[in-house]
Give the backbone structure.
Amino acid sequence: MPIDLQPLWDFNQPQLSEQRFRAALASAQSDDALILWTQIARTHGLRHDFEGARSILASVEPHLAGAGAEPRARFALEMGRTFASAAHSAPSQTPEARERARAEYLEAFEIAKASGLDALAVDALHMLAFVDTAPQDQLEWAKEALAIARASTQPAAQRWEASLQNNIGYALHRMGRYDEALAAFRAALAIRERGADAWATHIARWMVAWTLRAMSRIDEALNIQHALERDRDPSGQPDAKVLEELAILRREKASRSDR
């Protein structure tokens, strides 16, 4: 059986994740070892150490010729993430960086698609939204990824649905298509509420309230944000985005009262 990476990952603590991956290397062989090294590289990218991530991937590359599809797809995916991702600053996103990222993500997608690695195919498509940042382009990538996730029988691919619905909602919100955005965010929330990730559910509820404010449904948005006010982020602090939204909503409600 391929190595299960999910128990080893804590995306809020990439250094801890690296320690787990390195410990797992002690008993890993061939493809599993290569996969672990790609994830170690990813932990460096999450810490904005993109050069360090590329250095690790460079050491993996010579071993890929005889490797299976998963390490090859993961190698391309992680190499792409060193050029364009949520962790990159705007000035770093040069045309050259974006094109290198695009090539890597498309290669990862093609390898994954041809080999039936649905979750990796979805991941690669979702990363292309960091290359093509216009909302219409992001919407198309998210819809294509969602179609794969919904058609898949693989749990790892199916688990992407809530995130992809969120991405669809965000793109629609940016386009001013608030009714459609609200439907997508509510679909994401329904999935999150069936799961066990309380913070992901918190974020999904916030997205719904954020869109209700854009639709001038102030009281509904206020009710949700007030309920979220008691929650704490993973570090134990109040959610600054909730407090910010509450301040905006109170100002808007006060301005309406003054009219």
